[in-house]
Design a protein that fits this description.
By secondary structure, this protein is α/β, with parallel strands linked by helices. About 30% of the residues lie in helices and about 20% in strands. Helix 1 packs across helix 9, helix 4 crosses helix 6 and helix 4 packs across helix 9. The protein binds 3-amino-D-alanine. 3-amino-D-alanine binds next to helix 4. Homodimer.
């Protein structure tokens, strides 16, 4: 039986990775790794071990659920042990020799890995899963995205900030620079000299790599919102050909990893509470942008659970493909 280590097993994404492995009945033995302070904790009957240089001996695959700096520290140990790593950090996503994979879109890229396969950023995964079928149908020149990202994207500290502030606790902010309760913060990550944040660049850079579209134009505004879980995204698609809403609905009904939620007259549309704790991306509010005289612009609204499909589920789906190829 293949052995899988989850590095960063005690965080929200690491715990979700274990849950996804269990849900999918993957035929693997799981080893939980985390920092020394988590050593001995028990998660779903498994005892957490301290992550050390020897932790990866005898391990076949690693699911990485750590921040960049921690990942860069243990990655050489995993590679030395001959492991194949599916990494959720952003450390290696844009490396030329590291495939960046959303299985519904570019699973074939997995075959070109050199020991590391990168999991894209959560908001990138949710946008591309929701729009891939539309890109295939109408062609895509430019994508303009405004994200509304849940506090749990910032981990347990983000959740704590919202919970504390809603309860009126007078405690220091842990994750965000300003109060998030009853507020919006139009900043996720540091800004560069153009006034663009790190999170916003991810949508363009990662989208181009996953779709193999080096010329794709993407403009993104990332906003933190007082929602516990699930990211929402308002997306404008400037297409190559004239768009048709009925056809868009048809192709989305067939799209992998997508649920069409589009009956606005009956108040049916994607909402983060509905996508939370399930793996599909919901797509709705599909309409032509009537300001485009050529009729080639489509507007959609997507929601997806950023801990599941935006991180853990996507990584476990990549692991499933690796296991299939190893059979
Ligand atoms: C966030 N996408 O939402 C980033 C990292 N998960 O904070």
């Amino acid at each position: 039986m293949k052995k899988v280590a989850i590095a960063g097993a005690t965080g929200a994404v690491g715990r979700q990775m274990l849950e996804c492995i269990r849900e999918r009945n993957l035929p693997v033995e799981v080893k939980l790794l985390a920092s020394a302070r988590s050593k001995g904790k028990v998660i779903d009957g498994l005892v957490v071990e301290e992550l050390t240089p020897d932790s990866f001996q005898g391990v076949d695959y690693v699911l990485g659920a750590c921040e960049n700096d921690v990942t860069k520290r243990w990655m050489p140990w995993a590679q030395e042990a001959g492991c194949v790593v599916v990494d959720n950090s952003s450390a290696f996503r844009l490396d030329d020799n590291v495939p960046l994979v959303v299985p519904e879109i570019n699973a074939d890229d997995i075959d070109h890995h050199n020991g590391i396969i990168a999991n894209p950023n959560c908001s990138t995964i949710i946008a591309l899963v929701g729009c891939d079928a539309l890109k295939k149908e109408f062609g895509l020149k430019r994508m303009i995205v405004t994200t509304m990202q849940a506090v749990s994207g910032a981990g347990v500290k983000g959740i704590a900030d919202l919970e504390n502030q809603v309860k009126g606790e007078d405690v220091p902010f842990q994750a965000f620079p300003y109060q998030i309760a009853y507020n919006l913060i139009p900043q996720i990550g540091d800004f560069d000299e153009f006034g663009i944040s790190k999170e916003e660049w991810k949508m363009q850079n990662e989208g181009r790599k996953i779709w193999h579209e080096p010329e794709l134009l993407v403009n993104c505004t990332c906003v933190r919102v007082p929602v516990m879980r699930s990211h929402s995204e308002s997306i404008t698609l400037e297409c190559e050909t004239e768009v048709d809403v009925a056809r868009a609905r048809e192709v989305l009904k067939q799209a992998a990893g997508v649920q069409l939620k589009d009956d606005p007259q009956n108040r049916v549309y994607p909402m983060p509470l509905d996508t939370t704790d399930q793996d599909d991306v919901f797509v709705g509010r599909i309409r032509k942008d009537l300001t485009d005289p050529e009729g080639k612009t489509l507007q959609v609204f997507v929601c997806g659970d950023q801990i599941r499909k935006g991180a853990a589920t996507n990584a476990v789906q990549i692991l499933e493909k690796l296991l299939e190829k190893a059979e």
